[in-house]
Amino acid sequence: MGSIKKAFDLTGKTALVTGGSRGLGLQIAEALGEQGAKIVLSSRKAGDLEDAQGHLAKLGIKADWIAADNSKDEDIKRLADGAIAKLGKVDILVNNAGATWGALTEDHPIEAWDKLMNLNIRALFVLSQQIGKKSMIPNKYGRIINLASVAGLFGSSGEMQTIAYNTSKGAVVNFTRALAGSWGRHGITSNALAPGFFPSKMTKGVIASVGVDKLTEGVPLRRLGDDDDLKGAALLFASDAGKHITGQILAVDGGLTAVLSSS
User: Fold this and answer.
1) How far is CA 203 from the centre of its chain?
2) Is the whole-model pTM more than 0.70?
3) Helices (H), 184-255
4) Sign (positive/negative) of CA torsion 78, 82, 88, 94?
5) Whose C-alpha in 11, 57, 171, 185 is 20 to 30 A from the C-alpha of 152?
6) DSSP symbol at 161
7) What letter does residue 141 receive in the DSSP assignment?
8) Phi and psi of 219, rounded to 5°?
């Protein structure tokens, strides 16, 4: 049996992390960089990316960045080409960039629906396609990690009505499975993380209005995710430790979906 420590080692690997300037994307970038991967971060704002680069540098992780708006096809293509130019190849693609919107279903703006579908699922396809055909397929190697959500595994009601977000993340779930089936023959794995509630800029409003106690009352571990809770799962999917895992959705949610699925 090979060394398990070596199986998790990413020395010599390269990674592009979208939505990487903060929150879950930056957390994943920390994990990949700590294990030796060369990193390119992407998000819309150069200032945020410079801050993230400085944060990683303090941890001893060297990272480059490209500012891009993943709601625009031309930016996605520029991002793919730029990342490949900076890294030489992209071994690991973390599709994390996304948005949310809360509204009663009957009042949900159509333009907000379109925005979420465009950024949360269409952009994942376009960027994965670009990186796949320009780097991963020619190199016969790739690890694609999509950020889904527990919201993509069930509906929403009451104070948290997010029909477009839930629908888009449900699409990420099946996109992940379909991509695994399409590209497995090229040595590319496709898996998704489905986080529960983690404190972030995106969830700040919900946490403030609903409250931590209410958000965690149905969670077996009675806690929100923290700044480290995605790292191990992301590293499994990104490394050779997970080389025989593809098309899988891993909920990192304190046990919430286990309880919901059994009720």
Assistant:
1) 15
2) yes
3) 204-210, 212-216, 231-238
4) negative
5) 185
6) -
7) -
8) -95, 120
Answer for the pair 73, 138: CB distance below 8 angstroms, yes or no: no
Helix (H, G, I), strand (E, B) or coil at 14: strand
Extract the tokens encoding 259.
């309880």
Residues recognised as catalytic: 165
Question: Which stretches of 29-107 are assigned E, i.e. beta strand?
Answer: 38-43, 63-67, 92-95
**String of DSSP letters for 92-125:** EEEE---------GGG--HHHHHHHHIIIIIHHH
Residue tagged 């025989």 (tokens)? 244
- pLDDT tens for each residue of the chain, 263 residues long: 589 999 999 999 999 999 999 999 999 999 999 999 999 999 999 999 999 999 999 999 999 999 999 999 999 999 999 999 999 999 999 999 999 888 889 999 999 999 999 999 999 999 999 999 999 999 999 999 999 999 999 887 666 688 999 999 999 999 999 999 999 999 999 999 999 989 877 777 777 777 888 888 889 999 999 999 999 999 999 999 999 999 999 999 999 999 986 55
Q: In what order do the strands lie in the sheet with 63-67?
A: 63-67, 38-43, 14-18, 92-95, 142-147, 188-195, 249-252
* H-helix or E-strand spanning residue 47: helix 46-58
Q: Residue holding tokens 């790739």?
A: 142
Enumerate residues 6+ apart whose C-beta is below 8 A from 57: 63
Distance CA 100, CA 114 (A): 11
Tokens coding 65: 């960045």
Query: Which domains does the chain carry?
Result: 4-255 (3.40.50.720)
Residue type, 91: D
